[in-house]
Amino acid sequence: MPVNSRPARGMRDFLPEDVRRREYVIAIVSDVYQRYGFEPLETPALENIETLTGKYGDEGHALMFKVLRRGEHEASGETDLALRYDLTVPLARVVAEHRGKLPKFFKRYQVQPVWRADRPARGRFREFYQCDVDAIGSRSMLIETELCAAVSDVLMALGFRDFVLKLNHRRLLTGVLSSAEIPETLHGAALVAIDKLDKIGIEGVRAELAARGIASTSAERVLEVFAGGLDLQRARDVLAAVPDALAAIGELEDIIALSAATSAGPYLRFDPTLARGLSYYTGAIMEIAVPDLPGSLGGGGRYDGLIGMFLGEDIPACGFSLGLERILVVMAERGMFPAHVQRGVAAVLVTLFEGEPAEEALRLASELRAHGLRVELYPEPDKLGKQFKYAASRGIPRVAILGSDERARGVLTIKDLTTGAQTTVGRAEAPAALGAVDET
RNA sequence: GUGGGUGUAGCUCAGUGGUAGAGCGCCGGAUUGUGGAUCCGGAAGUCGCGGGUUCGAUCCCCGUCAUCCACCCCA
User: Fold this and answer.
1) Which nucleotide is closest to the Cα of A397 by its C1'?
2) What is the ipTM of this complex?
3) Tens digit of pLDDT for each residue in A201-247?
4) Contact of A67 with A82, CB cutoff 8 Å
């Protein structure tokens, strides 16, 4: 009885073309981040459960994949480990654990899978890669500015031109909510509603706020602030009595002013309704939007209190996370991958005929490989037509024909499947004729 | 987690309460050293799974799983 061969819900197998696409994007992400001085980091898939609890809010906690205790304790149903839920909390743990070995300003990037027990949807999976960059140890707004620039560089290098880098500030939001006399316990609920303003409109948000238990007088004050297209100048006026919010506005103004000198400048836009779900953010928050995706391509922000939860002493930190899967979904739909990413691996197929010595073909293949060519050897004797067909179906552009005629004359016949042209060259010229670039 | 759509050949999808279909792809041949075009032929499906109604279910009903869309939330 065959067993179901599907991967577990929300998990995927990556076939060769999938892997090539993923590696293409990851290479660009890593390259750009390295140019900004970020260094690579990897952390374990599993974390102790107490490392992760209390960092993501109730909703996040519910989506965590927890691991049962093993051995005799398994039956108890207790969990002591969990699959990592993001790359930020493990980073905070690493900083607390290895503080003495890390530089004063620790800048790291990390591309690894994370797991969430969410319901799968387009661009949403239960196992997915995040590409994080974070800078630890500075409160300067240059950090936010450079992170936005790095992310913009990545997206531009991938071919995106129509993204928006939304920018907001946690303390501006809490300032608005507090001045509207919304109790702190309802801030989260209120933010979720406000976040939908561009989607469901003022009436929708009004209904949503009411449904979430916000007093109507408070709701009206909030709507008054957000409804009329709040810019930073107006925010200053409206929140003149809330010093903390004014400081937040000042930070946003700094980031925007500084970003004019970076690639992020044209893409950055203050969005007062941007909220973001993770509970650890304390300062500026960012998110990338593209028109064809309802969700975001990535997001980030400042979290000056998170490392302190491990260390007992606060260390400022700020980071950004790109969602690899979301980027891949959009790039695939828009056909943004260059041709070399789509093509098969081998540049040349070496033929093999019935009754011919395989050693000759092996020798030719290894000779070509020594010249840097990617060479696939047809593994069993077959009709030439079959071998051509195979090469064509694999996307291999050239076939090196080595049969009895060629061996007798000491030559090689080369067929270019893209043009149909066929040439005969001496064995010594074969590598160059097949496109090898001599490195010596 | 809530609501709705879909599940039939490798892929895209038709179809009917009475023995299962097309296009594309695949395989073979025309062409035993020449792919892509054309022609001829061929293989292939417990109609997602389990139960129920029925003389009989791929079709109707219930459940379940998968998948997609919207909501929720998010990368």
Assistant:
1) B35
2) 0.81
3) 787 888 888 888 888 888 888 888 877 677 888 888 888 888 889 99
4) yes
